[in-house]
Amino acid sequence: MASEPGRPPRRGFSVVGPAILITLGIIFLLNSLEIVPWSVWGTLWRFWPIILILFGVQIILGRTGAGWGISFLVAIAIVVLLVGVIVAAANAGWISGFPSGAGTETHQAAQPGSVSQDLGAIQEARANIDFGAGRLELDALPSNSDKLVTVDYSVGTVGRIPRIRLTQNGRQANLSITGSDDIRFTPRAQPDQWTVHLNPATPLDLTVRVGASQGSLDLRGLMVRTLNLDVGASSTVVGFPAAAGATAAFINAGAATLDLEIPPEVGARIVSSSGLASINASSRFSRSGDVYTTGDYQTAANRLNIELKAGVSTVNLK
Fold it and tell me: Which pLDDT band, with edges at 50, 70 and 90, does 172 fall under?
């Protein structure tokens, strides 16, 4: 049908966005079924030119009048090709977490190391941890440690070595732990792994940002006053402080699986503003709308307040 006079021509439906969403959805599904490891996200950056190809296909078919239906079929074919390339790369041993197709171990071994920062006169700290793809673990140092932080690491697929930066103002410190800028993707069999050990006697305001990763944050032996947790496509277990007094946590999750483990001696209140998230609460919690509260919240000596924002995530309150 011809367009009405004076009205601009109707633009075709773009298939680029749906094709990208379908690709991400397929990979997330394969992650959840444990067919593809989470560390695959550290390799997918190699395939970014596919986005340019999809835009090109859209422009060409749009000009020929082929219609969005044919464009969509072409986009799906490209998506299938991309997933096939990922599987082929996995079988060749180029993606972390897959065995080599030849049946023999040909990957380089992960390279271990450790970095640390002395405690000195520091009595409280703001700690920021930025971690990309791989596995992140966090726990407490021994009670008599003279270190503020120690990071044990193993260099894997992405190859980011942790770097510690510290600025100090008297007895207060700002601590930053980030990966090195010189990222080197390698066909090693294991993902990058960091294990961060923090001083248990130092009050902390802790910020943790993780991307496509698996993680375990054991805060039970730490004096965490505030926790800001930002997680992407990840599977993360968080064990909250057992004797920190009052702890406030702000959690922002994308497509994630979160296990929030609250010690029995801690009274907790969780306020959720999560549209598509699935929240599963144990019998400890009573629910009123989007608020989950333990029975001892008002009387507990140690209290935890959580503000939770989650996308397409599964959150388990324990």
Answer: very high
